[in-house]
Specification:
347 residues
Length: 347
Amino acid sequence: MRFDFISNDDFKTILRKDYEELLRCQEAKAWKSVVVLCGSVIEAILTEYFHTHTPSNLTQSKILKLKFFELIQLASDQKLLNPQTSAISTVLKDYRNLIHPSVVYRKGEVDQDTATISMSLLNLVIKDVEINYFQNGSVTAIDVFEKLKQEPMSINLFRTIVNRLNRVQKVKLLEVISIHEVENRDEIVAGAEYVEVLKTIIPDDEIRKFVQQLVNEVNYGTRDSFYQYFLQFYDKIHLLKDEEIELVILYQIDYLKEILIGKYFDDENFAKAFVIGQYCIQIGKREMLLDFLNYMCINFIAYTNDYSAQSGYYTLLEYVFKSVDTVESTIGKSSCQEFFDTYTLLY
């Protein structure tokens, strides 16, 4: 649990550490510690929420002084928690007292059932708070997207705003910008840069859903849409299954061959488009890479009298080489020029 929906960085750090400790205690079957930490995490989540979205009849300093049962009551009054969650919370009402041996002596040891109920309650609280977090005047993914359509935003400002969004809103923002980049690229300045920022913030398990769109475009979409998605997620293709990677790379190679025939060598995105080498090696399809290099060299020789075309082919081949970790183990040569020279002699 990353608690990305929490906007206060200090609370977020505390929650992440406590939750990791909670999971360790659960694994170790330290049930009393599980209950205590569940109460602590719930208290921190509710405190942070009301500290950020302070009711009109309270102050932030007052929020910080509220006890666990007072926070639960406030959350219930503000309809932050649903009635079921509020009712179950009584199991943790006196969780702090469990640190005292006399309390444990009177009430008995905390068992696994109590710990399980506490974990269930924690998950309910997390769900309720995350759903409601941005309904109290805070920005949403659509708010940020509409702002970007109106005027460009610096990358630093964009990153700051994105970090305040919860996980759901971050993924939503990537979705709307990604689709917009495919369909209406000219309306948002630096849209590709915003995608790059989001890819560094959103976990790979969420990013994989976007990379999967490449496979969908191969099967049901258009070549142009496929290419635009490829440019956005070219560095995340490794998240796919090997057979999916092979399909995507074969489709991309066909597209690149069209580009080579047309001698379109001025595309600033070619450094991304030609990173196919690393994926050929990853899935054990070395022959796919060699066949493509062979195709490039044949065309390179065919344009002997066209310096501009030969220069373009040389540059594109460099992109392919750079995408492979070890050129020597891939084609047996240490540079693009050596590869070209050797190929030309053999030809």
